[in-house]
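User: Could you go from structure to sequence for me? I need the amino acid at each position, not a summary. Structure tokens:
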């Protein structure tokens, strides 16, 4: 059966080295987690799958990796400095702080049930920094709360370096930081998290067409690449639009406690480039933007066919990588009844996403002949550059199989005494536990077939 609660995944993550509590030996830090040996691999594979879909499979999107520490003015003109806050209330009885819009009952404390609640006040979500030896503690920079704004401010740089006709996009993956009041749901909502965002710049006349196109493209990716069943995903249009949006839709995944957002697809119209451009009065900006007297660059597009110079609209796709990893693990997690009171836990990940692509296991520990064959197979597979290949030399074949079932390894390769006689090994498949005998020389080809499923 699949995971009933997120706690099933929390336990697996700690036991098998996917995710640890940040600063754990000092009591931890709310909303901060460390990714262990297999967590970093799964996260990397999800990133690579996204990057492949956005960059390597297309001609119209370029990559970017912008700075984490950013000029304060960037967030002034994006509207974050004045408006990026949550309504915070405090219980006078127990001291608990809560987001008013997330409370079960806005008249009662979620923690103790008291009705002695303070009036809401704005709580700044951005993490301010004091940069420079003479800053005297004054905030003059921020850790970015999203990757999108650093993409908009690089619009002209990318377009000049790599010219494109509209439509075209800029994509980046990176860390973002927010002063979340109440981090929750394991890695679902954190103070330090990772985003994979793509900003697609279009002619204003084509915005609705491309918004719909990217809705379908991204839903297809979740189903076909990450392996999430279509019935566990849905589109959820925003009932109340943000000030910058013309349209906004979330892709939601059915977590154990209900549907929640994993990716947003937004029509941001010309708000972002219009907010950060020089000489705003030179353009017909549809969105309501703050007057910008500090920008040094016109973030516009010149159409050589029509001769028009205008501010493009933006269609944004914004995915939480941490949330994607959580959804993937929840969906892949299974507890199987093997009969006779025996069970096994297995992560039935898409093979391309698996942290370990294959494990090579000598049947007996420290037998030189078996170890030599095993090391030779490992060396050949590692030269293929397909990801992590592990050698297991503990001698307990049953425990090795169970460990690799739990971390999602799609195939184990067992080297035994017959291997010394006829140069064959046993392939043991994770999902079915089927075992087949193959020639050692055929192992690389067989592994590629598995990973391409």
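Assistant: Here is the amino acid at each position, in order:
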């Amino acid at each position: 059966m699949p995971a009933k609660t997120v706690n099933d995944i929390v336990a697996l993550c700690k036991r098998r080295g996917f995710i640890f509590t940040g600063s754990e030996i000092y009591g931890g830090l709310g909303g901060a987690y460390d990714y262990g040996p297999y967590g970093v691999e799964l996260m990397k594979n999800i990133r690579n799958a996204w990057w492949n879909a956005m960059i390597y499979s297309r001609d119209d999107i370029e990559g970017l990796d912008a700075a984490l520490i950013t000029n304060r003015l960037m967030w002034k003109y994006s509207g974050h400095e004045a408006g990026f806050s949550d309504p915070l209330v405090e219980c006078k009885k127990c001291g608990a702080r809560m987001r008013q819009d997330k409370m079960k009952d806005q008249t009662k404390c979620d923690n103790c049930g008291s009705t002695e609640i303070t009036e809401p006040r704005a709580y700044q979500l951005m993490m301010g920094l004091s940069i420079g030896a003479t800053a005297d503690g004054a905030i003059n920079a921020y850790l970015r709360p999203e990757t999108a704004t650093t993409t908009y401010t690089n619009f002209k740089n990318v377009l000049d370096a790599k010219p494109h006709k509209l439509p075209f996009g800029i994509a980046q993956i990176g860390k973002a930081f927010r002063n979340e009041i109440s981090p929750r749901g394991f890695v679902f909502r954190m103070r330090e998290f990772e985003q994979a965002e793509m900003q697609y710049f279009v002619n204003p006349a084509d915005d609705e067409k491309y918004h719909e196109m990217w809705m379908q493209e991204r839903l297809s990716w979740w189903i076909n690449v990450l392996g999430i069943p279509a019935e566990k995903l849905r589109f959820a249009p925003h009932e109340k639009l943000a000030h910058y949006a013309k349209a906004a839709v979330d892709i939601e995944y059915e977590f154990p406690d209900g549907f929640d957002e994993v990716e947003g697809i937004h029509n941001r119209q010309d708000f972002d480039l219009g907010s950060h451009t020089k000489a705003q009065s030179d353009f017909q900006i549809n969105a309501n933007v703050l007057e910008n007297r500090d920008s040094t660059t016109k973030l516009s597009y010149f159409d050589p066919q029509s001769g028009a110079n205008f501010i493009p609209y933006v269609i944004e796709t914004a995915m939480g990588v941490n949330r994607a990893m959580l959804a993937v693990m929840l969906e892949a997690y299974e507890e199987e009844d093997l009969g006779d009171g025996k069970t096994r836990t297995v992560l039935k990940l898409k093979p391309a996403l698996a942290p370990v692509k294959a494990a090579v296991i000598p049947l007996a520990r420290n037998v030189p002949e078996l170890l030599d064959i095993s090391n030779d197979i490992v060396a050949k597979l590692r030269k293929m550059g397909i990801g992590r290949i592990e050698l297991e030399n503990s001698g307990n074949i049953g425990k090795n199989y169970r460990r690799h079932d739990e971390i999602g390894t799609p195939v184990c390769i067992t080297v035994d005494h017959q291997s010394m006689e006829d140069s064959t090994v046993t392939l043991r498949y994770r999902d079915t536990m089927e075992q087949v005998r193959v020639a050692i020389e055929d192992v690389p080809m067989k592994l590629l077939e598995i990973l391409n499923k």
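One structural detail worth keeping in mind: Residues 76 and 446 are 55 Å apart (CA to CA).
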